[in-house]
Amino acid sequence: VQLQASGGGLVQAGGSLRLSCAASGRTFRTYTMAWFRQAPGKGRDFVARTRLPGGRTYYTDSVKGRFTISRDNAKNTVYLQMNTLKPEDTAVYYCAADPGDASSRSRDYNLWGQGTQVTVSS
Questions:
Q1: Exposed, middle or buried: residue 83 (CB in 10 Å: 0-12, 13-18, 19+)?
Q2: DSSP secondary structure letter of residue 11
Q3: Distance between CA atoms of 32 and 103, rounded to whole angstroms?
Q4: Which residues contact 16 (CB under 8 A, 6 or more apart)?
Q5: 33 with 80: CB under 8 angstroms?
Q6: Which of 11, 67, 58 lies closest to 34, judged by CA?
Q7: Distance of CA 23 to the CA centre of its chain
Q8: How far apart are CA 34 and CA 103, in angstroms?
Q9: Distance in angstroms (rounded) separating the CA atoms of residues 4 and 106
Q10: 27: exposed, middle or buried (C-beta count within 10 Å: 0-12, 13-18, 19+)?
């Protein structure tokens, strides 16, 4: 079972990126899928999560209105569309999965991807 995150990069403030997290090894159809991020010298913080296609999504306050989490169960992939990026969004972004109805706490998740670096220049 693996989660493979991709799509990070260097972008100017105000720009956009789309992160992808492809799950392999099993069907993640009913899993809670989430994105977390970790800035240098800081802890791993919740960004967004979703469980069922078309179901409710949750975001940390600082990204509401700018980021959108979505999933394509046919591709076993979850996405994070990030618009109007700010320098404070700079971090390593991790995708995570849990078979249950996980919360926004990182300790609820037992499956993690390897992380993808997002750098936003001012």
A1: middle
A2: E
A3: 9
A4: 81, 82, 83, 84, 85
A5: no
A6: 58
A7: 13
A8: 9
A9: 17
A10: exposed
* Dihedral in degrees, nearest 10, Cα atoms 10, 49, 111, 80: -30
Q: What is the mean pLDDT of the chain?
A: 94
* CB-CB neighbours of 18 under 10 Å: 13
Q: What is the DSSP letter of 8?
A: -
What are the b/e assignments for 43-53, b being 16+ CB within 10 Å?
ebebbbbbbee
Residue type, 39: A
Per-residue model confidence (pLDDT) at position 14: 98
Tokens representing residue 73 in the block: 């169960």
Does pLDDT of 16 surpass 80?
yes
Residue indicated by tokens 């010298």? 41
Residue scoring higher pLDDT (7 or 99)? 7
Mean pLDDT of 94-105: 92
Contacts of 101 (CB under 8 A, 6+ apart): 32, 51
Q: CA-to-CA distance for 16 and 40, rounded, in angstroms?
A: 21
